Amino acid sequence: MGLRESMETGERTGAQESRAPGSVDAEVDECAGVRGAYEGILRRQSARESAARTYARALPIVPVRARGLTIEGADGRRYLDCLSGAGTLALGHNHPVVLEAIRTVLDSGAPLHVLDLATPVKDAFITELFRTLPPGLADHARVQFCGPAGTDAVEAAFKLVRAATGRTGMLAFTGAYHGMTAGSLGASGHATDVRVARLPFPQDYRCPFGMGGDRGAELAARWTESVLDDAKSGVPLPAGMILEPVQGEGGVIPAPDAWMRRMRRITESRSIPLIADEIQTGVGRTGTFWAVEHSGVTPDVMVLSKAIGGSLPLAVVVYRGDLDVWEPGTHAGTFRGNQLAMAAGTATLAYVREHGLAERAATLGARMLSQLRRLAAEFPIIGDVRGRGLMIGVELVEPRAERGAGDAVDSTDGDRYTDPEVFPAPADGGPRPAAPELAAAVQRECLRRGLIVELGGRRASVVRLLPPLTISDEQATAVLDRLADAVEAVARGHTDSGRPYATHTERAG
């Protein structure tokens, strides 16, 4: 029986037990013990947790310590974390101002659970939140604390606009993601009992009308107008419209600013409340404090979660005061009074605002996008690079060419990757087919290099970067270097074999 098997079954030899501390053999034993414990945790997770788990499948690590951009696993490896709790960690892991805010509440003896009672901690949070809201909303806004997740805020927003308008249906957009409960799933394109009409979301790379740009956005807007104004469209006047200023899980697709303004005019002229889902885009992520500020749009309702809790569970709905028609008890939630999350959220909101981290995200994000686009010009498995601020997506595609035997790419000849005779563009000039298997391969190669990234997009073909807003220039360079190495490894494995990228297991087999 080998050392690993011996550790897993709990067996020890007398020689192992008698080795002196600090010796080479003792260090080997210690490393093997750590690895055995680490692998045991992963095995128990697989045996005991739901099959619905997602991140744990693609990222088989056991985090034990973290600070800023860096996570340390139980196996001693360190990783640069560009997942950031799916955008929750605006300041990265365990930022000192967040930890201090939490300790202050803990040391004060204040109650941690208070339902919706007023507290100094809640008052400070609301004050700081209202200080950051888009112009035109803060002066007459109301806030509803919901259950702790973003999907709870979406459900509350739907209930709010239905009560305010007396109408029932909702408008949402293809590619959207608003949560995992019934109403939010309906808005995200899944079949539910909630009546949701889904509209085309404009984008350049995979334009639903085949053209992109201003023309594609114009057609998407006209489609929306037609659905609302055609008595035979089958879509009655809805209670509200919900949209993401940047579709996150949908593949990092920024909404064109002019189209956003058009949606505001369309909804306003028809008395349809506009709901902005800023759950992932908010708190400086896209280069403005709230992503709607890029277009100058003031929504009627904003749903907020993730970063506003400073890494802890918190979700709220902020809305125009005249929509506040709820009777007492119409909407509630046991865990809407999370004092630690409010304290951490206040510290996070204030730090981002006072240190200009939104502006920093805009500058650094533009630089990272520029470098990634140069990478895309070198490797045709990258179909598109897009994003806003530090919300970045890299879409992996399948080059439409079968390579013959012996037609390998010289690793020193980068020009071959862009040779149209080797990798011809699609005949219609459109985007190449999405390649989810290549995206998954890039994610695996990133993890091997100590970089954690997320996948998204309708076909799971988009590698997503959501680094903390506190990322340094040097760290950003390290992230891009590791991602570039991973893309190169996958591209060469794909093009040299003339078939989709083979996993290490496949190659070993």
Automatic annotation (TrEMBL):
Basic and acidic residues composition bias: residue spans: 1-11
Keyword Transcription on entry: no
Record family assignment: Belongs to the class-III pyridoxal-phosphate-dependent aminotransferase family.
Enzyme type, top EC level: transferase
Cofactor entry: pyridoxal 5'-phosphate
Organism: Streptomyces lacrimifluminis
Protein encoded by which gene: pvdH
Pfam families: Aminotran_3 (PF00202)
Keywords from the UniProt entry: Aminotransferase, Pyridoxal phosphate, Transferase
Region feature Disordered, mapped onto this chain: 1-25
Pathway: Amine and polyamine biosynthesis; ectoine biosynthesis; L-ectoine from L-aspartate 4-semialdehyde: step 1/3
Protein origin, superkingdom: Bacteria
Record's keyword annotation contains Phosphoprotein: no
The protein's Enzyme Commission number: 2.6.1.76
GO molecular-function terms, A-Z: diaminobutyrate-2-oxoglutarate transaminase activity; pyridoxal phosphate binding
Record's protein name: Diaminobutyrate--2-oxoglutarate transaminase
